């Protein structure tokens, strides 16, 4: 594993209507943080769902800028997961470490957003990030995020969820050639892919794993779930570990969000009802 970049920190779910998406995930039983607005040059806003050690970010474009051109291009065709963020212990050193592996990186970006704290005060959560010049594989952007103010990101009270969500189970990435894509991710992370079954590989990240699989394996993994609307390649599944699967099911039922049972255990919401991602709940 890399010295200055660790496992999965969070993933990005890109949406067209930020308010509507935040409402959807709240109905699914998540405690959704209030909207944050990024620095002006970013032109984006988000609502985060904070888990015990990681999280997912619901991201929307508020004002077109050069920095969000790539997100606007994606939204012309679809919503869904567009990036995986690794945790940077030191963004500057991490970028240099990755570049030394022959993988070009962009300059480190520094930005923040205001946060309202439970005691009524307002602070700012700040980050240093670096992106790769090129996608790791078709449809897959990986970047690294260093948290300068973690106490203003993992805000007390935000990690408790009605659906009992605890953390990311893993991120599933769709690929025509899973072995090749898994090898590319592993090269970046200085990891070693593990073959799970035909068409399915697991890339350890020192946190939640990245699972790379082809479309046939994805269909087998989710049985009767309607997979319409997924991209041809890229991250597609937001896997969530819950303490109580029955509680997660009760939240979905109350919200009227359709779900299917996953072969082997768990439940999943189809992409059409979850802003372009497979929302999969599995018991701890």
Total domain units: 2
* Count of β-strands: 16
State the name of the first-level CATH class of the largest domain.
Answer: Alpha Beta
Overall helicity = 10-25%
Annotate the secondary structure layout.
Blueprint: E1 5-14, H1 18-27, E2 36-37, E3 44-50, E4 55-61, H2 69-75, E5 80-88, H3 91-99, E6 109-116, E7 122-131, E8 141-147, E9 165-174, H4 178-189, E10 194-197, E11 200-203, E12 210-213, H5 215-222, E13 234-242, H6 245-255, E14 259-261, E15 267-269, E16 278-283
Parallel strand pairs: 1-4, 5-8, 9-12, 13-16
Antiparallel strand pairs: 1-5, 2-3, 3-4, 6-7, 7-8, 9-13, 10-11, 11-12, 14-15, 15-16
Protein architecture, described:
The two termini are 25 Å apart. It is built from 6 helices and 16 strands. The chain has 2 domains: 5-152, 2,3-Dihydroxybiphenyl 1,2-Dioxygenase, domain 1 (Roll); 165-283, 2,3-Dihydroxybiphenyl 1,2-Dioxygenase, domain 1 (Roll), CATH 3.10.180. The mean pLDDT is 95. 20% of the residues lie in helices and 36% in strands.
